[in-house]
């Protein structure tokens, strides 16, 4: 897969690629009619804040003029409801839902294609990697995304996190193409749907700043930051007000964002929070909720400062961190993180633990469902089985995140000390 | 993980300098090769990163820690609470008014008799907490509309001139709180006489009538922690024994009781019973009279082929306690929060083998199970499949008397008197229990400085004290039971507040166990980073000074 070949194919083949990916999804949807509902019920795919089943419950209440948050099942953004109530009933005409989710995946892939094609991964305004020639084209990156089993499983399980994924990827793509406001609007949408993408604002601002930098009339970064913050606040306010108008109360705030902040729904998932908080002393619960959220958000400023020269790397690493440490993670978050990793093809030779990482992630992928089955259905295991495997899974992901961070920094360092290229590092 | 990523993020390539073993040069001193000095920009960047972590920890982390772990302790009126527990806030005095209906006696003589009788009563009674006060009943015209303020007059003495020449006689009215006294016409005291036979007689009769109530209240005060000058001077051991036996037999006070009537048969018949009619006819009147003190909910059930917990047909004394087959008979311990009283009618061929003269309340067909209910053995009725309401008359009447005993009703006197005594006993009991709950809560608060006290506990305490005051002010009256009940409920709710109970035992060592495992891994890199920064800053300063 040399670069020349790929770029030649890229222009011609995207449409074909998208067609194949869409066909594969629709084939899976229609050839295995039990598959969507099976995957919708999997805890690795559907979390309390993204589950399609819960969305249908909310939709039912909404269509019967009851507040969708009554009953405490639905924890998703209110604006999803009118969108889905436009579609015919998913139980009688599921094909429309399938088409919608396939389209969202294709949109994400399209944004990813643009991101990869921009070459930002290897060469940003402030930094140009010596290895930047070695990169994958948008075609390959989009292929890796579209045919990633995690992405496919997510698409068929139909959690609403695919909308967040799409919004984040578009925010990055628009920032890369210099459309700051569109980018901020996309980020607001992602924030509105899942809250945590707000933490991506600082690297997104630096990315947008770098891509719109005009050496003749330089604007200050602070100025742009204020502008972006205002844009995000304004669009978020607009979204909130329209949600208020839709549901008639501010109840959605506590039901959607409140539940992520207080973790009142302790349904098991692939993350690290649920087990911890089932065991927590009640009097320390709120304190540790604060600690966990603070831990999650403390990476943003530090990474933004450290990797100021490579904002896309910051975003990628942060998405990896979110996929591990956010309150309700699922493989949708993992697939978002994995979709951006191939943009850093040039540092792959610098990864030290690629084999270990791949094995651990595969180990978690296969044993996770097995242990969940042992716990819930077979009854021969207990909660610790599943929690142990989510620990392994998180270990695999954090190995990948730290290894990628190491590789990116080593790449930077070799620019500084070219004589050290290819030498082994040693701490002194 | 955090430490790992943070290290990768900020320190490895910049501060952990990397050297390389140079191959094939033959020089052994690889380690001696110094890395080039760090760039100024890198140092500054590292400082910024350490600063960003510390800013978050200090400006967001510390407030979160402070807000979420400070223990909220609402202010409790500890002084008042201990006063109540020690009996300093309220003198448990039960002023009972006794009306003296003198009939046709002239006013002067009536007053005289009243004064003397009161005097005799005071001499007789050494327990000042339980105080009988006489008053003249209203003029007969008004008295026919029986008693003006029913709740305040515990007993009416109806005096009437009798036939007997020298001895007075008295009898308690069977259905009304009235003591009929017949006196010989010549025994009326004269205006100046210091004592009178009739007065002493009435006083003695009154004392006897209220002896049981006095004993029970003395017992309650004795067994509570209250120290008071109104405390009884000491009651004899055997009185304590009988009263305590009776008190342990009765159920804990509750506003509502659930009565479950069950028909258990040892075969396929009888399969139906006229329980509703029987209850309406034989038990309802008593339940209605109990209404001011208790509410009742009733359900019934029939269970066929129910085998008792004992095999033998003739039940010995020890079989009685295991007769109820708790494992198989569907007798739920309590329904909807109210304590359940079980009444079981068992039809079968069982008989009780021991004559039960030891406890007079038990007939040869039934026995009472303390704090639980009672069992009645019914011979299989003639018409086999159905138990008629007449057949149930005796069981239901037995159950009614058992119910009164289970509720703690005293045994002597007419039913209205017994019930008004019951109300007074129960309000004293509740008052004492609420006070002691307050005292326990106060001691708990002082003993555990780390326990949190939510504001609703403080509210409950304030409410308790308010109602205790009201109850204390109206002791002996009808309202006092109501107030004492609210006070007791509030005190229990405050004491058993869920968020407090969880922290009853939470020593400081546990906090180390909670904080250290999680905050250790985060704290070490944070602190080390800060220390390194300070060291580097000092180095730079000393170098600058050297250079200067």
From TrEMBL, chain A:
Transmembrane segments: 12-32, 95-115, 136-160, 180-201, 221-246, 272-295, 307-325, 360-379, 385-409
Localisation: Endoplasmic reticulum membrane
Pathway(s) where this gene product acts: Glycolipid biosynthesis; glycosylphosphatidylinositol-anchor biosynthesis
Keywords recorded for this protein, A-Z: Endoplasmic reticulum, GPI-anchor biosynthesis, Membrane, Transmembrane, Transmembrane helix
Coiled-coil regions, chain positions: none
Membrane topology: Multi-pass membrane protein
InterPro entries assigned to the protein according to its UniProt record, in alphabetical order: PIG-U
Recorded superkingdom: Eukaryota
Family, per entry: Belongs to the PIGU family.
UniProt-recorded name of the protein: GPI transamidase subunit PIG-U
The species this protein was found in: Apiospora phragmitis
TrEMBL record, chain B:
Pathway: Glycolipid biosynthesis; glycosylphosphatidylinositol-anchor biosynthesis
Pfam families per record: PIG-S
Transmembrane segments: 48-66, 512-531
Endoplasmic reticulum recorded as keyword: yes
Record bears the keyword Transmembrane helix: yes
Its membrane topology: Multi-pass membrane protein
Family note: Belongs to the PIGS family.
Name of the featured protein: Phosphatidylinositol-glycan biosynthesis class s protein
Annotated source species: Apiospora phragmitis
Origin organism lineage: Eukaryota, Fungi, Dikarya, Ascomycota, Pezizomycotina
């Amino acid at each position: 897969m040399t670069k020349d070949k790929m770029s030649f194919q890229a222009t011609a083949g995207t449409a074909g690629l998208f067609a194949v990916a869409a066909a594969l999804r629709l084939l899976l949807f229609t050839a295995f009619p039990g598959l969507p509902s099976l995957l919708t019920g999997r805890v690795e795919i559907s979390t309390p804040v993204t589950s399609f089943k819960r969305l249908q419950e909310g939709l039912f209440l909404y269509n019967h003029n009851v507040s969708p948050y009554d009953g405490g099942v639905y924890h998703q953004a209110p604006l999803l409801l009118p969108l889905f109530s436009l579609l015919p009933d998913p139980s009688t005409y599921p094909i429309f839902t399938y088409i919608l989710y396939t389209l969202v995946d294709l949109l994400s892939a399209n944004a990813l294609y643009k991101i990869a094609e921009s070459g930002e991964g290897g060469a940003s305004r402030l930094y140009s990697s010596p290895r930047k020639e070695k990169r994958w084209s948008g075609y390959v990156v989009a292929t890796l995304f579209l045919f990633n089993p995690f992405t496919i499983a997510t698409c068929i399980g139909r959690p609403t996190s695919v909308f967040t994924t799409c919004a984040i990827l578009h925010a990055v793509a628009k920032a890369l193409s210099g459309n700051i406001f569109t980018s901020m609007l996309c980020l607001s949408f992602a924030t509105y749907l899942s809250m945590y993408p707000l933490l991506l604002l600082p690297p997104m601002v630096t990315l947008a700043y770098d891509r719109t930098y005009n050496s003749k009339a330089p604007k200050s970064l602070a100025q742009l930051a204020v502008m972006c913050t205002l844009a995000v606040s304004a669009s978020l306010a607009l979204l909130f007000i329209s949600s208020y108008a839709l549901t008639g109360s501010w109840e959605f705030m506590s039901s959607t964002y409140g539940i992520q902040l207080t973790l009142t729904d302790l349904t098991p998932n692939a993350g690290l929070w649920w087990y911890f908080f089932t065991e927590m002393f009640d009097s320390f619960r709120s304190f540790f909720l604060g600690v966990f959220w603070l831990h999650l958000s403390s990476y943003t400023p530090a990474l933004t400062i450290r990797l100021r020269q490579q904002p896309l790397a910051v975003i990628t690493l942060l998405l990896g961190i979110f996929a591990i440490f956010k309150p309700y993670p699922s493989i949708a978050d993992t697939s978002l993180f994995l979709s951006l990793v191939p943009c850093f093809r040039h540092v792959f030779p610098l990864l030290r633990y690629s084999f270990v990482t791949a094995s651990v992630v595969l180990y978690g992928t296969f044993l996770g469902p097995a242990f969940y089955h042992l716990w819930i259905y077979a009854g021969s295991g207990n909660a610790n089985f599943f929690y142990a495997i989510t620990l392994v899974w998180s270990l695999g992901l954090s190995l990948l995140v730290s290894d990628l961070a190491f590789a990116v920094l080593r790449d930077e360092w070799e620019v500084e000390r070219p004589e050290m290229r290819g030498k082994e590092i040693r701490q002194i | 993980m955090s430490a790992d990523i943070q290290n990768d993020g900020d320190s490895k390539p910049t501060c952990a300098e990397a050297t390389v073993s140079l191959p094939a040069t033959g020089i052994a001193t690889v380690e001696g090769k110094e890395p080039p000095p760090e760039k100024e920009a890198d140092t500054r960047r590292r400082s910024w990163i350490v600063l960003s972590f510390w800013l978050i920890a200090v400006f967001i982390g510390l407030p979160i820690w402070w807000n979420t772990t400070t223990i909220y302790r609402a202010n409790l009126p500890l002084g008042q609470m201990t006063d109540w527990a020690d009996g300093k806030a309220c003198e448990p005095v039960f002023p009972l008014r006794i009306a003296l209906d003198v009939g046709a006696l002239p006013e002067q003589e009536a007053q005289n008799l009243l004064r003397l009788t009161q005097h005799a009563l005071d001499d007789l009674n050494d327990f000042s907490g339980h105080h009988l006060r006489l008053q003249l009943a209203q003029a007969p015209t008004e008295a026919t509309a029986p008693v003006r303020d029913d709740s305040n007059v515990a007993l009416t003495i109806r005096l009437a001139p009798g036939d007997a020449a020298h001895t007075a006689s008295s009898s308690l009215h069977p259905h009304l709180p009235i003591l009929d006294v017949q006196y010989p016409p010549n025994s009326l005291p004269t205006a100046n006489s210091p004592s009178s036979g009739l007065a002493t007689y009435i006083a003695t009769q009154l004392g006897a009538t209220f002896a049981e109530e006095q004993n029970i209240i003395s017992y309650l005060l004795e067994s509570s922690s209250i120290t008071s000058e109104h405390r009884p001077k000491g009651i004899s051991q055997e009185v304590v024994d009988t009263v305590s036996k009776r008190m342990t037999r009765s159920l804990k006070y509750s506003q509502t009781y659930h009565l479950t009537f069950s028909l258990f048969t040892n075969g396929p018949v009888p399969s139906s019973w006229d329980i509703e009619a029987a209850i309406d006819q034989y038990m309802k009147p008593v339940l209605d009279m109990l209404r001011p003190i208790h509410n009742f909910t009733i359900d019934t059930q029939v269970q066929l082929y129910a085998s008792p917990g004992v095999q033998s047909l003739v039940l010995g004394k020890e079989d009685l306690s295991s007769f109820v087959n708790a494992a198989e008979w569907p007798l739920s311990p309590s329904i909807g929060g109210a304590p359940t009283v079980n009444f079981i009618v068992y039809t079968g061929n069982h008989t009780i083998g021991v004559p039960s003269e030891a406890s007079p309340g038990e007939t040869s067909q039934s026995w009472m199970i303390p704090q639980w209910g009672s069992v009645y053995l019914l011979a299989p009725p003639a018409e086999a499949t159905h138990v008629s309401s007449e057949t149930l008359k005796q069981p239901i009447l037995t159950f009614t008397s058992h119910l009164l005993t289970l509720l703690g009703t005293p045994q002597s006197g007419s039913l209205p008197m017994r019930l008004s005594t019951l109300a007074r006993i129960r309000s004293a009991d509740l008052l004492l229990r609420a006070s002691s709950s307050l005292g326990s809560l106060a001691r708990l608060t002082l003993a555990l400085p780390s326990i949190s006290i939510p504001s609703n506990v403080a509210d409950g305490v304030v409410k308790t004290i308010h109602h205790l005051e009201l109850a204390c002010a109206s002791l002996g009256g009808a309202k006092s039971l109501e107030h004492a009940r609210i006070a007791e409920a509030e005190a229990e709710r405050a004491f058993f507040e869920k968020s407090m109970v969880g922290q009853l035992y939470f020593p400081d060592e546990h906090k180390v166990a909670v904080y250290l495992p999680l905050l250790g891994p985060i704290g070490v890199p944070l602190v080390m980073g800060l220390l390194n920064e300070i060291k580097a800053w000092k180095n730079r300063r000393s170098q600058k000074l050297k250079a200067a």
